[in-house]
Amino acid sequence: MYHLRFLEARAKGRATRAFFPSPVARGVLTSALALAVLSIPVWAQTPDPQPAPQPAAQTLDQRLEQLQRQVNELEQAVKVAQRKQELAEEAAAEQAKTQATVTADTSGFTIRSPGGNYLLKIGADLQLDNRTYLGTGAGSDIDTLVARRVRPTFSGTIYHYIDFMFRPDFGLGTTAIYDAYAQLNYLAWANLRVGKFEPPVGLERLQNDDDTTFIERGLPSNLGPQRDIGYQLSASLFNKRATYAVGVFNGVPDASIGTDTAVSDHRDYSARIFLTPFLPDENALSGLGIGLGASGGNTDGEALPAFKTFGQETYFTFASGVTAAGHRTRLDPQTYYYLGGFGLLTEYALNEEGFQKSGVRREIAFRAYQVEVSYILTGEKKGFGSPTPRRSFDPLHGGWGAWELAARVGDWEAEKGIYNYGLASDTTSPRHLHEWVGGVNCYLNRLFKVAADYGKTDFGGGALNSNKLPERTIILRFQINFI
Amino acid sequence: MNSTAFCKRAALSLLAGSVLLAGPVKLLNVSYDPTRELYQDINAAFAKQWKAKTGVDVEISQSHGGSSKQARSVIDGLQADVVTLGLAYDIDSIAEHAHLLPANWQTRLPNNSTPYTSTIVFLVRHGNPKHIKDWDDLVRPGVSVIAPNPKSSGGARWAYLAAWGYALKKNNGEDKKAQEFVTRLYRNVPVLDSGARGSTTTFAQRGIGDVLLDWENEAFLALDELGKDKVEVVMPSVSILAEPPVSVVDRVAAKHGTTQVAKAYLEFLYTAEGQEIGARHYYRPRSPEVAAKYSGRFAHVQLFTIDEVFGGWQKAQKRHFDDGGVFDQIYQPGK
What we know:
By secondary structure, chain A is of the alpha+beta class.
């Protein structure tokens, strides 16, 4: 009799397990059943000095019936709890369809409407540099800590098809708007962007300020526009194998962000095509990209360009009485190649720009190139954007972030006529620069980067320029970036 | 061929051409929870009839959920060409808050725009182990009652009012005693689903509760699907005449250019074919002929109307189901 009841209880246990997949529910029921079964022998073996008021079998049946009732009630309670949980989850899912979500993570702070048609992302881009000048390259080279970039970022989407970006900069003690544009993404083959942004010419210039391999960009970026106001059509075509961009802009001097208004009726026309022919496959050549950027326009009324070294010294000044006037063309062949942790980026810039002095206009050619190579030691993949460390920096738990070594060599040159036509003084403005830079980058995590670069720049070309000592600079950067 | 015949042929050709170019007409029927199967059959029959009559294909999409929740969706922009909801108040809400149809919408079709009726019955487990025969059995201690939430479900509101009406009748119209009765009943409700189909799931599939308060059609559908060896339908002595109404959503249909087909779709519900389909799905037909034909399908229950006992939906809604109303007072989750 006892065994029969025990087997019955075990059979009920199996049925319950099949009915209740949840371990918690099963646990509660198992405990109840165990108590029920255990209580039987305990009761049965307890010595009873008094005669039982009722026959033992009848009492046992009543007891079992009572326990069965309790188990049933417990089953119901568990089922009700599970169902309530289901309903709560359904209600939450339903609510998620109609309520905006707010998230805060490594990509910033995001507010997203149901379906994602409306999105606002708030991010920031902070760079603090410690510049140390070795030797006496120039009198103005004062060792300094500088807030290089302090840029809150507001970007997002409205009406599903329209992206926007607004990014001012409060770095270097100034206030300026760097990016302020809207982009209509209605046609996959032609996205229309309107506002202030990077015109499509230079390769490294189009790299995000936080993603450049070196703390400061190479010499070809001295010969391209930094930001300008205009219209642009662009798209990625043929399954990412080709990217094009064409645009019309106010026109700005080299390396400048302009004044946010046009200074003449002339416009700059920019275009760039970039091919990554081996995408989207993953093979040894899929990281190869090759392209050409170009622009044409007129410099009438513009400010004169200011060219800077790696240490951010302005090394070239025009003679007094020189103004920008005449045509300007820019040509920028460019390529990169990434394979595993290895990266190569090369760029050549050729400009012809019009200047005027004493009523005479001349066109001067400028040339610059750079070759930069890098290698990530910790196994992450190198690319046009920053790598994401496989393990964030946490030495106590074996995390060292991503470490990268990099080197760059570059040249910049103005044609000799710049002296012959009296546009610059060969005693103060070198017309030839040669630089090399070595650096170490440590990506502590997705947001935080520490970089240390050493750069040496040699000057030459002018009659007295051989006396100008090389600039040797160490820059240490702390960067926080989440956008 | 004379010129008149030529013109007719040309016009027909143009019409046919435009129809072919335009593709099928599309309708969205936003309905309440348990009508899925009914409208699947109605849609197929109507599409066939419409095609035969006009030569035009019609595709009808369905959306289902708790009646009030569905009305809210239409108010919020769900593009319903027609609504077929669980109670008139929900369509009144659409008229009042979104102005998508006139306030007198209920006068536009026969029987207050209610092509079929239903009532509230009990679904119990096989053998009726808790011996549930009538409303009084639902308030006994130890009886677990499954019902949807009257705040979101039309069927739940009908069920709540059916219980209230029974208690009023039993207590000679004493309102306080009716409230006590309904309070005791909802104390026995462990889970409130948002709609009738959800409650059926809770009762039938999750095995919760001793009795399900349900639409008659939904109860018989569960009986058909689960089998008589699993559940039984119990008809209470008294219940409410539930009148689920239908209407074209004028402004949406006009915008879609579907007004004509939407009207025809709802009128089809009143035809002999539409009424028979309804009866086969356990909706009580309005047509006397069809009702007679299917009389064996529907048990006799003493039914009262909402107008008789509660003075209409507007009053019932305001007193019982609006925020802060009687239901909010008597049902507090966790208590």
